[in-house]
Write a structure and sequence with these properties.
- By secondary structure, this protein is an alpha+beta fold.
- The chain contains 7 helices and 9 strands; from the N terminus they run H-H-H-H-E-H-E-H-E-E-H-E-E-E-E-E.
- It folds into 2 domains: 40 residues; 189 residues, no CATH class.
- The radius of gyration is 24 Å and the shape is elongated.
């Protein structure tokens, strides 16, 4: 009796046992799932881009060998845009030949030595030349001088980080605030049809946005208002040549 009084009634013993099992289960779950995901999402330069509604099986397998060479600093977008036949507006289509292997990945040479906006050059080189389906982390551009530079000038021309060719001009037919607000909403600088320098930009069949010289820029992710070019700032931080 004295032993039972010290340990408590049977229902209390069962409650303690269930509590201990619950704690053990949560610990195991955290070690197996929560900690790895937290580490992935907080690693420098890595962030998941919100997937689109398009199917992904072919997306995850395409360019696997090239994408695996990217390494730390970028994370897969895991997304496909609409097929080219459904693109409206002023889209100029390109072919896969633009992204063939060249002297430096998909480009002839590395990114420029001194890029604008204070972007990371190593990250830029991996995304621009050795990548087809990865992106800088969401809102990376907010850690740079982009917003300050754009606000001060009222309009910017964005140049290829490899060649220095003009790729985008923004804002066009909207305010600086409109451009920055839309970019903040999606996590990456977001351009519209009339802000693209189509002489130097192409859209591939799966929505990938590239330069005519093989620089990976981002993707066309259309919304209900039209085409929206979701672009890595590190890809368009070049100095004009």
């Amino acid at each position: 009796t004295s032993s039972l009084s010290q340990r408590g009634p049977p229902w209390l013993l069962w409650l303690r046992a269930l509590t201990a099992m619950a704690r053990l289960s949560w610990t195991l779950f955290s070690l197996l799932f929560v900690c790895p995901v937290w580490a992935l999402r907080t690693a420098p330069g890595m962030h998941l881009r919100r997937p689109a509604s398009a199917p992904s099986p072919s997306w995850t397998s395409r360019r696997h060998a090239l994408a695996s060479a990217v390494g730390a600093g970028v994370l897969s977008t895991a997304t496909q845009a609409a097929q080219a036949k459904s693109f409206g507006g002023a889209v100029v289509l390109g072919t896969e030949d633009l992204m063939r292997s060249k002297g430096h990945g998909t480009t002839e040479k590395p990114v420029q030595e001194k890029l604008l906006y204070g972007v990371d050059r190593d990250l830029a080189d991996r995304i621009c030349s050795y990548n087809r389906r990865f992106a800088e982390r969401a809102w990376y551009y907010t850690t740079t001088s982009l917003a300050q530079d754009l606000t001060a000038s009222g309009k910017l021309t964005f140049h290829d980080s490899v060649t220095g060719k003009a790729l985008f001009k923004a804002p066009v037919d909207r305010t600086v605030s409109d451009f920055l607000n839309e970019s903040m909403l999606h996590g990456w600088p977001s351009f519209r049809d009339n802000e693209v320098v189509w002489e130097n930009v192409r859209i591939l069949e799966d929505g990938e946005c590239v330069s005519v010289d093989g620089t990976h820029l981002g993707h066309n992710l259309p919304d209900r208002t039209g085409n929206r070019y979701c672009i890595n700032l590190v890809s368009v931080a070049g100095r004009p040549v």
